[in-house]
Write a structure and sequence with these properties.
Largest sheet of chain A: 2 strands, antiparallel
Largest sheet of chain B: none
Helix content of chain B: over 70%
Shape of chain A: globular
Structural class of chain A: mainly alpha
Oligomer: heterodimer
Order of helices and strands of chain B: HHHHHHHHHHHHHH
Number of strands of chain B: 0
CATH architecture of chain B: Orthogonal Bundle
Strand content of chain B: under 5%
Helix content of chain A: over 70%
Number of helices of chain A: 14
Low-confidence stretches of chain B: none
Distance between the termini of chain A: 26 Å
Shape of chain B: globular
Distance between the termini of chain B: 15 Å
Number of helices of chain B: 14
Number of domains of chain B: 1
Structural class of chain B: mainly alpha
Mean pLDDT of chain B: 83
CATH topology of chain B: ABC transporter involved in vitamin B12 uptake, BtuC
Mean pLDDT of chain A: 86
Largest interface: A-B, 45 and 41 residues
CATH class of chain B: Mainly Alpha
Number of strands of chain A: 2
């Protein structure tokens, strides 16, 4: 039990359950099937985006271009289907390939030049977004095959949408990657301390490029899922991903310096953010408050993490004196 | 042959100066109207703002941090100024002082939270960016202030020096000189740099690093607020969306100018005039891209490529100078 209490996701899970009960007590509409459906949709989209950022946070870097990659893939995916009348599967594969390439570019330049990923991904953010706008001239693509529309809006059972399948699979795969594979452990080791990870024979080049490629792939999947949901490919897909992509991992206890991320806690972070955004809508609070709230949530999470670290430090100190 | 390259030539600023001159030559030969009085005046108005934004980012980069909230902060301060002048009828000079104080206060929040939590300023300013912008939109209800005092808006469209230069540019250049003096010759300026370069060593030599970092964030807020006022004067109104959603439009020039100018992202080094040259280069390229007609939508792409090229070049230069110094 005491082990359970120490987990990052445990406290978050508790907050989510208590919060949901409290909200549905005041506003029963919160647990109406339609609301749960909308909630699950927003959770599944943000889950992929948050995972895309989380893996970069794990290696102690940041990826500002997540939204730009998502947007570029989204318009390529729809553009290929509309303009070149490609079928869904090849368009999807090309979309994934674009995401992979974008991620590879980010990772390769970052690791080969040693320049901070922040600056590199800021530059590629503008490059990918510029390509997006250059190709589309800010016009959306509307011609989406029915199968894609169906996937984005149909329900499996009750309020559960088809759209949750892929994000859940991704979350499970990410958990396996970070907790059960040597690649994931190497990433955390690299994020924790670059020098010592190199000394024990971990290749920086490999780790950084792998992390960025996975991030690019996830951003690509996120972009395509948004297309399924919206039923059109607009150039501004991905513009608003930056804040939530950092919010969820940070609320989940990730340390931005790298070396510590928790997949389950990140997923809970996404759920918490979605529930709060939803609750603010249900209580008819100004939508701009959602943004302010998200900002405060990040600061609060940061303070809590800091406090826990501080307590941990004090405890170990007392222990060492004994 | 034995001849020595003067030190100045090796610096980043010299390379930048050459680039600026090359670009001016290219654009004035390849396009009509680049050297026209109208275009130069328009350039001077834009460059003034880019310099100020670049400086505001530079002073935070000095601490090894970043300020993502720059745009949101600047717009919030500008809207506050609009409210002071239009709704409250406070005289212009007092309004401006209030705005600058307000900007410094918002910067203080950034600095205080960063120092107290020990979290990287990236995540702190990411949060405050959305908080400032959210509150600003909420309080103004996304309405612009368009009836500002005429003296104030006239100042923004004033033309000096045979109608070539905007007075806004003079403010920016003056700020550059003041900052240069502060960082080079004053006690506090040296302390700020020392704290950024090596916090542990600075702490040991009796400098309160936390306080210095907070000062840097306050200075950043101050300069961002100044940029906000200048933009308001230039447009002639205070508009919530004047720096884009969440103030993101300011972010690229804010990073481009100091990075091109040779400011180290790890902190501890400032180049005030480098930042100025960087801002001039960015504005030139931006303006030139429009004039040679690459298409409005591709401008972002090229700016991104230029940022990438600039950091790679800088890396190469660093590498070469290190190699040279080892050889000699």
């Amino acid at each position: 039990m005491s082990n359970l209490l120490k987990k990052d996701w445990f406290g978050l899970g508790l907050v989510i359950i208590l919060g949901s009960i409290l909200i549905s007590f005041f506003k029963p509409a919160f647990i109406s099937p339609f609301n749960l459906y909308v909630l699950m949709l927003s959770v599944s989209l943000m889950l992929v985006v948050a995972m895309s950022q989380m893996i970069i946070i794990a290696i102690g870097q940041m990826n500002l271009s997540v939204g730009a990659i998502g947007g570029l893939v989204a318009i390529s995916f729809t553009g290929l289907m509309e303009v070149y009348s490609m079928s869904i599967l090849p368009a999807m594969l090309i979309g994934l390939l674009i995401g992979l390439t974008c991620g590879f570019i980010n990772g390769y330049i970052t690791v080969k030049t040693g320049i901070s990923a922040f600056i590199i991904t800021l530059a590629t953010l503008y490059i990918f977004k510029g390509m997006n706008l250059g190709i589309t001239e800010a016009q959306p693509f509307y011609e989406i095959p029915d199968a894609v529309k169906f996937f984005g809006n149909a329900k499996i059972l009750g309020p559960i949408p088809y759209l949750v399948i892929i994000p859940i699979i991704i979350t499970i795969l990410m958990w396996i990657l970070m907790n059960r594979t040597s690649l994931g452990r190497y990433m955390l080791a690299y994020g924790n301390n670059v020098q010592s990870s190199e000394l024990i024979g971990i290749s920086s080049t490999k780790i950084v490029i792998y992390a960025h490629v996975i991030s690019g792939l996830l951003a690509a999947i996120g972009g395509m899922l948004v297309v399924c949901r919206l039923q059109l490919g607009t150039p501004n897909i991905g513009d608003s991903w930056l804040l939530p992509s950092f919010a969820a991992p940070v609320i989940g206890g990730a340390i931005l310096a790298g070396g510590k991320v928790d997949v389950i806690a990140t997923a809970f972070g996404v759920i918490l953010v979605s529930i709060i955004s939803q609750a603010l809508v249900i209580f008819k609070i100004d939508p701009f408050f959602v943004q302010i709230f998200l900002g405060f949530m990040i600061l609060l999470a940061v303070f809590i993490n800091r406090y826990r670290e501080y307590r941990e430090e004090r405890r170990t100190k007392v222990f060492s004196y004994e | 042959m034995n001849f020595k390259i003067p030190n100045f030539v090796k610096t980043n600023q010299f390379g930048l100066l050459c680039l600026v001159i090359i670009f001016i030559c290219i654009f004035s030969f390849s396009t009509d109207g680049f050297t026209s009085r109208f275009n130069i005046y328009a350039l001077s108005r834009v460059v003034a703002l880019d310099i100020m934004i670049g400086l505001a980012m530079m002073v935070v980069i000095l601490t090894g941090g970043l300020n993502l909230s720059l745009g949101a902060l600047g717009v919030s301060a500008a809207m506050f100024g609009g409210w002071c002048m239009e709704s409250m009828g406070i005289p212009i000079s007092i309004s401006i002082i209030l705005v600058l104080a307000f900007g410094s206060f918002l910067g203080w929040i950034n600095g205080f939270v960063t120092v107290r939590t020990g979290v990287h300023s990236f995540i702190v300013t990411l949060a405050t960016m959305s908080i400032y912008f959210g509150f600003m939109t909420l309080l103004t209800e996304a309405e612009a202030f368009r009836k500002l005092p005429e003296i104030f808006t006239d100042f923004g469209s004033l033309k000096l020096f045979n109608k070539y230069i905007s007075p806004l540019l003079i403010i920016s250049v003056l700020t550059c000189f003041i900052l240069y003096y502060v960082f080079k010759y004053t006690d506090i300026g040296r302390k700020l740099i020392a704290a950024g370069a090596n916090p542990d060593a600075a702490e040991l030599s009796g400098i309160s690093v936390d306080r210095m970092f907070i000062y840097c964030h306050m200075l950043s807020g101050f300069l961002a607020a100044l940029a906000g006022i200048m933009l308001t004067a230039r447009i002639g109104a205070a508009i919530p969306s004047m720096a884009g959603h969440l103030g993101f439009d300011w972010l690229l020039p804010a990073f481009l100018a100091p990075v091109l100018g040779g400011t180290l992202l790890s902190g501890g080094k400032v180049t005030v005039f480098g930042t100025m040259l960087g801002a001039i280069l960015v504005t030139l390229i931006n303006n030139g891209l429009y004039l040679i007609d690459v298409g409005e939508f591709w401008v972002r792409f090229f700016l991104g490529m230029i940022l990438l090229g600039a950091v790679l070049l800088d890396r190469a230069r660093e590498y070469l100078t290190v190699k040279n110094s080892i050889v000699s």
